[in-house]
Amino acid sequence: MINSLSKKVIQQIEQEVQLETNNEEIHNVYHFTSVSALHSIIENNSIRLTDCTFMNDRYEYIECLKMVISTAKEMLKEREPNTKYNEILIEMQEYYNERVKEYISNLNDGWYRSFYILSMSTISDSIPMWNYYSNSSGICIEFDKAELYDMFSKKVDLSNNPKAMREVNIRQFRCLYDESSKKKLIRKMIEISLPEIAESYSVDEQKKRSGLYVYFSNTIRNFSHIFKRAEFIYENEYRFVIDFCKNTNPKEKLEHIDKGFYSTPDTIRSCITVKFDKNLPIRAIYISPTNINETVVRGIKLLLEYYGYDDIKIEKKQMSLRANY
Q1: Which of 30, 32, 14 is nearest to 22 (CA)?
Q2: Cα–Cα distance between 104 and 98 in angstroms, integer?
Q3: How much is the average pLDDT of 170-196?
Q4: DSSP state of 64
Q5: Maximum mean pLDDT: which of 141-150, 235-244, 250-259
Q6: What is the mean pLDDT of residues 300-323?
Q7: How far is CA 96 from the centre of its chain?
Q8: Given this model, what pLDDT does residue 130 score?
Q9: Averaged over 174-199, what is the pLDDT?
Q10: Mean pLDDT in residue range 100-111
Q11: Sequence ranges of the domains in the chain
Q12: Which pLDDT score is estimated for 324?
């Protein structure tokens, strides 16, 4: 019995994901954070990524599963009765309804925890985003997207490490919010995978559910962080995701990557910190329009100069009358 989707199918899905989510016109991405976090990033030459179960929408994975269920239902309605793949589409709906229940019941028990996310935005000025950080007194760091991704890729590449006991992947994508875009991508993923799922059915009829998990669930899981609910569209989020793949030693220490925790006023979050051996590709620092501290610009300028960041633009944003931008 085949025990995974073929590389060809996975590559096709990867290509579709990139076509739908990685806009080549986006050259720079923006990270809203606090002044103290900027200090830590510059001083330690590192970036922190947060455990995916501590995102502001803890149930975002369910959004992906619901898209699979509704899309499979729509595809089934479009087909003639008793035609090829109908049984799979029915089984898929049942299977993912169970997965939604399983995810909710196991959320606090560590299930699904191998993804770490760096949340960026495709815009540099947003009142809701400013409000979310440091009581509106935060800052926004502009990064060169391609260069940052390249730096991450080099730090998680274990191909030349014969002692490595795990596989680590880095992905980047623009999040999808509107239902039509999400269903369009899910439909393509299902259509690409159906022939191989059908092959597993014919080989072993008694293992339909396990077949679905092996053939499709792991692939869906890898891209589930693309799908966000519409109420979060103001974030215009662009994500860098590091995946510590399953079936590996979770306690293995990796060079350049530290596992740990950080605290917020109301919780403790698990995270990883990626350390770099050269300055980060920072292009500009933007200061919240409601930050009234007169020394903040000078402090940031001195910090950047001390650590060798030359010609970085520092700009105090003006208050916008638009709610989301």
Answers
A1: 14
A2: 10
A3: 93
A4: H
A5: 141-150
A6: 86
A7: 21
A8: 83
A9: 91
A10: 68
A11: 7-67+112-191+226-316
A12: 53
Please say whether the beta carbons of 176 and 226 come within 8 A.
Answer: yes
Alpha helices in the chain (DSSP H): 7-21, 35-44, 60-78, 86-106, 127-132, 145-156, 179-203, 208-212, 218-223, 296-306
> What DSSP assignment string belongs to 25-41?
T--EEEEEE-HHHHHHH
Residue of 113, 72, 68, 106 lying closest to 226 (CA atoms): 68
- 3-class DSSP assignment, residue 65: helix
- Cα distance between residue 75 and residue 296, in whole Å: 55
Amino acid at 304: L
Give the C-alpha separation, 315 to 25, whole Å: 23
Count CA atoms closer than 13 A to 250's CA, side-chain side: 8
Helix axes 60-78, 179-203, angle to 10 degrees: 70
pLDDT band at 146 (very low <50, low <70, confident <90, very high): very high
Residue 37 CB-half CA count within 13 A: 19
* Contact between residue 199 and residue 2 where contact means Cβ atoms under 8 Å apart: yes
85, two tokens: 């793949």
Q: Which two tokens stand for residue 59?
A: 């149930």
**pLDDT digit string, tens, across residues 27-42:** 999 999 999 999 999 9
Taking CA atoms, 210 is separated from 10, 147, 201, 213, in Å, by 18, 40, 10, 5
Band (pLDDT 50/70/90 cuts) for residue 1 is very low
The answer on pLDDT for 135 being more than 80 is: no
Return the structure tokens found at 145.
């997207």
What radius of gyration, in Å, describes the C-alpha atoms of the chain? Answer: 22
* Bridge partners (DSSP) listed for residue 227: 176
